[in-house]
Amino acid sequence: MWHRPRTQRLFGFTHTLEAYKPTHRRINGYYVCPLLAHDQLIARADLARAGRTLTIHHTTTEPHAPPEALDLFRQACSRMITKTGLNASQGPHNPRAGHC
Fold this sequence. Notes:
- By secondary structure, the chain is an alpha+beta fold.
- The protein contains two helices and four strands.
- It has helices spanning 4-11, 69-84; strands at residues 32-37, 40-50, 53-61, 87-90.
- A hairpin with a 2-residue loop joins strand 2 and strand 3 (53-61).
- The chain is globular.
């Protein structure tokens, strides 16, 4: 996501690093990772790691996400947790989204 104008042009996806914004001005979270599925960026997750625990603070699906977006998101979370050997912790989520 280094070249944000290209990401916007290719995927119609606006990505802003909100880590430097005051907490009350953040929309998606401190450090948000997008989910790419079927050539589309369909969801975002605010992730944090403390020791061996991966916390999913907040998740949001994009308006154009396919109906199976939540299942794709859960599968991606499972793969990430398995491959990294971390434990998972769930946080609040956006009503338009699900969480792992």
